Amino acid sequence: MSDVDDRLIKLEMDVLAANDKVAAENRNYFAEHNILALNLVSSPGSGKTTLLCQTIDALKNEVPLMVIEGDQQTINDAERIRATGCRAIQINTGENCHLDAEMIKDASAKLVPEDNSILFIENVGNLVCPAAFDLGELCKVVVLSVTEGEDKPLKYPYMFNASKVMILTKIDLLPYLNFDVEKCKQYAKQVNPDIEIIELSSTTGKGMEKWVNWLKSHRK
Amino acid sequence: MSDVDDRLIKLEMDVLAANDKVAAENRNYFAEHNILALNLVSSPGSGKTTLLCQTIDALKNEVPLMVIEGDQQTINDAERIRATGCRAIQINTGENCHLDAEMIKDASAKLVPEDNSILFIENVGNLVCPAAFDLGELCKVVVLSVTEGEDKPLKYPYMFNASKVMILTKIDLLPYLNFDVEKCKQYAKQVNPDIEIIELSSTTGKGMEKWVNWLKSHRK
């Protein structure tokens, strides 16, 4: 093993240990304030922001909601969220490929989420790297669009294994695609037998009720 | 800056320098054998493998073709390529988020691409990390599916800046989507004024001729 490989492995362990320490602090903070924090992960363009906008519309009169947006560049997503009336803060990661616990700690200190709220954290679009980083969330929710192909849970197993829920989005496009929903669900269960699956279209609203009920049932 | 941050920056520079050295060796090897090597990058599920299968069908009687496939897990993509009659080798990166030059060096030694061939390297589906890693290719070709939304060049500018060509795929789905092609092209040019853009559907074949001609014109 080369010197660089050796240093890389040691450093990765140190980076993850430092991250986990801050993630534990975030988790305590969320618990103290009874905040349900969720970490939404996916490929770019799976429809996370659109799903969040629809979720906010469905819940905003019942539950305090807040959003932390992660992207390499632009403040587009935070602006889309704010247009719904919901408070949102944008993190730009620059060249970095994922959010980390320190970024969430800083953003939470600025946003000051209300007690008893739901805090949605929309991660950078990336089915690989965010899998390893705990942000202090209750769980990861992986969003997979049916346009991406049913084999993605097998090809990116770490992310589907790290997630408690898979939301299968854009199901309104199924008539125009060669996508086998049952096979996709079977692949997801293969890498994570306990994963919960919600099929959903933000365009038609199909499946939204199940997702909204899932959110309500996970509040304390 | 913390000790971990400091070590991270130094190590990243060392990792990239070590990679660039091997990438230069690969580039020399490809030049000596007159191999046109292309690095296909995109989000998961943009349609890279389907595009490659169609490209192979269009070119296999004229040009020797070979494929190196990168995925975290599974040998699905190499099998799909081999079903076309084309030689292919699969690299599984495990937890890693991108191919590097050393992997391509090893895979090339096993595959032994023919002189005067086109070597397609299909990277791990990830719009972030592969941007920084030179594999020794002539250029990166970024594949963006119209289902992902037109804002992706602005949100992932490093990848679109690092690419010479953008192939806009799945254009057969445009009638069912709210996707502004002109805006997307404008965003891509904003982060990379020199980027060449090809609109394409692997399903209907529209745009394939332009892509195939691009390939032919870049052979020596």
In the CATH hierarchy, the architecture of chain A is: 3-Layer(aba) Sandwich
- Shape by Cα distribution of chain A: globular
Number of helices of chain A: 8
**Domain tally of chain A:** 1
Structural class of chain A: alpha/beta
Low-confidence stretches of chain A: none
How much beta of chain A, percentage-wise? Answer: 15-25%
- Assign the CATH class of chain A: Alpha Beta
Structural summary, described in words:
- 2 copies of one chain form a homodimer.
- With 220 residues, the first copy, chain A, is an alpha/beta fold.
- Chain A has a single domain, classed as Rossmann fold (3-Layer(aba) Sandwich), CATH 3.40.50.
- The first copy, chain A, is 41% helix and 20% strand.
- The first copy, chain A, has a 7-stranded parallel sheet, sandwiched between helices.
- Chain A is globular, with a radius of gyration of 17 Å.
- The model of chain A has no long low-confidence stretch (mean pLDDT 96).
- The interface between A and B is large, with 42 and 42 residues.
Offer a concise description of the structure.
The structure is a homodimer of 220-residue chains. The first copy, chain A, has helices at 3-32, 48-59, 76-82, 101-111, 152-155, 157-162, 181-191, 208-217; strands spanning 36-42, 65-71, 87-92, 118-122, 139-145, 163-169, 196-199. The first copy, chain A, is of the alpha/beta class and 220 residues long.
Strand-helix topology:
The structure is a homodimer of 220-residue chains.
Chain A: H1 3-32, E1 36-42, H2 48-59, E2 65-71, H3 76-82, E3 87-92, H4 101-111, E4 118-122, E5 139-145, H5 152-155, H6 157-162, E6 163-169, H7 181-191, E7 196-199, H8 208-217
Helix pairs in contact in A: 1-4
